Amino acid sequence: MARGFDSKFVEAQQEEASRAKTVRPALTPEQRERAARRQALELSRARMAADLARATVPAHRRMLEEAIRALDEQLALL
Fold first, then answer.
1. Is the whole-model pTM more than 0.85?
2. At what angle do helices 58-77 and 29-54 cross, to 10 degrees?
3. What is the pLDDT of residue 18?
4. How many CA atoms does the CB half-sphere of 72 hold within 13 Å?
5. Are 30 and 74 in contact (CB under 8 A)?
6. pLDDT above 60 for 3
7. Phi, psi at 28, each rounded to 5°
8. What counts of helices (H) and strands (E) characterise the chain?
């Protein structure tokens, strides 16, 4: 039963991916660069937020909080 559910889930993901590819408008090189930069910043922020959730040392927590604030500022400028 689990195998059938997994295959349907994978099939749904593939359909979603193919739909997303066909709907995307053409982007200028600047727009692509900006989108790639935003995605990189968002991924970095998500990783740091996950690290912060697990951090126990106060100095490490402060460093992560400051890094997240810096990433938020960069994201706000985009």
1. no
2. 160
3. 73
4. 8
5. no
6. no
7. -75, 160
8. 3, 0
Query: pLDDT tens across 7-35, in order?
Result: 677 787 888 877 666 666 788 889 999 99
Q: What is the dihedral of CA 64, 66, 69, 70, to 10 degrees?
A: -100
Tokens for 40? 């990189």
Whether the per-residue pLDDT at 54 is higher than 80: the answer is yes
Q: Give the whole-angstrom CA distance, residue 46 versus residue 64.
A: 11
Q: Where exactly are the structural domains of the chain?
A: 30-78
What 3-state DSSP class applies to 9? helix
Structure tokens of 65? 């909080």
d(CA 4, CA 10): 10
Structure tokens given for 71: 């990433």
